[in-house]
Specification:
Blueprint lengths: L4 E5 L3 E6 L2 E8 L9 H12 L2 E6 L16 H15 L4 E6 L1 H12 L4 E7 L5 H9 L2 H10 L1 E6 L2 E7 H6 L16 E6 L7 H10 L5 E6 L9 H16 L1
Parallel strand pairs: 3-4, 3-5, 5-6, 6-9, 9-10
Antiparallel strand pairs: 1-2, 2-4, 7-8
Helix pairs in contact: 2-3
Length: 246
């Protein structure tokens, strides 16, 4: 079994890397999540057991990386992903993005199409700041964001989440669903139909927008947003293996 390397890119971005066979795998975590989450660790064990290369990392303001979460935006986190990808991977890679990480993975794949051999989205949330988050706010919440610059939103996953005006204003600059997405690599999408954060019909919009034909959507009727149950993690591993073997 391979030994995992760890480090910090430019003294800012924390990463962990397993050496192994290509195509490698790159995991992109979700909003306020990190590389120590259950899906990231399950992929680490799965890839280690199969001798497959894997890269995990934390965006700025997340996990072990430097910076404040409140200073981050979609553009900043996408730039982090591209920097880590360019510096720490070689050859073809399969991107695995969870929730916001699915949006970042799509932006990364668009920026480096010749290096991406496939993409797996786990409840992917492209365009979520404008199409999902902003419409869910009431007038008072919107006013607090625009006038005070931040709204501390209660979260079922832990401490309140700071939603900044910078995040809301930057997000639409990176929207993808308003036009065809020029990706030709194989794409697999896993989405729970009991997802309270990213409705499963959002995945249908992504399927329609992707230009490539090798796109498959797997709906889990009793699945939630996290898709971190043992059966969900097994499905993720099986999906990755099938994609790598295709």
């Amino acid at each position: 079994m391979q030994t995992e390397e760890t480090g910090r890119l430019h003294d800012r971005l924390a990463w962990a890397r397993l050496p192994g066979a290509q195509p490698g795998v790159v995991f992109l975590p979700g909003f306020r999540s990190d590389m120590q989450g259950s899906k990231a660790l399950a992929l680490r064990e799965h890839c280690a057991a199969r001798g497959r290369a894997l890269l995990r990392f934390d965006y700025s303001g997340h996990g072990e990386s430097a910076g404040r979460f409140e200073d981050g935006t979609i553009g900043q986190w996408a730039a982090d992903a591209i920097a880590v990808f360019d510096a720490l991977t070689e050859g073809p890679q399969v991107l695995v993005g969870s929730s916001m990480g699915g949006w970042i993975a799509l932006l990364l794949a668009r920026a480096r199409p010749d290096r991406v051999a496939g993409l797996i989205g786990i409840a992917p949330a492209p365009d979520f700041t404008e199409t999902l988050m902003w419409p869910a706010f009431d007038a008072a919440q919107r006013a607090e964001i625009m006038e005070r610059g931040v709204l501390h939103l209660p979260s079922q996953y832990g401490e309140p989440t700071p939603i900044t005006r910078a995040l809301i204003e930057d997000g639409p600059r990176h929207n993808l669903l308003h036009a065809p997405i020029p990706l030709r690599c194989p794409v697999r999408i896993l989405h729970g139909m009991r997802d309270p954060d990213v409705p499963w019909r959002h995945a249908l919009r992504l399927v329609e927008a992707l230009e490539g034909d090798d796109v498959r959507l797997h709906l889990i009727k009793d699945g939630d947003h996290r898709l971190s149950r043992p059966e969900d993690l097994r499905l993720l591993a099986q999906t990755l293996d099938q994609l790598l073997e295709s």
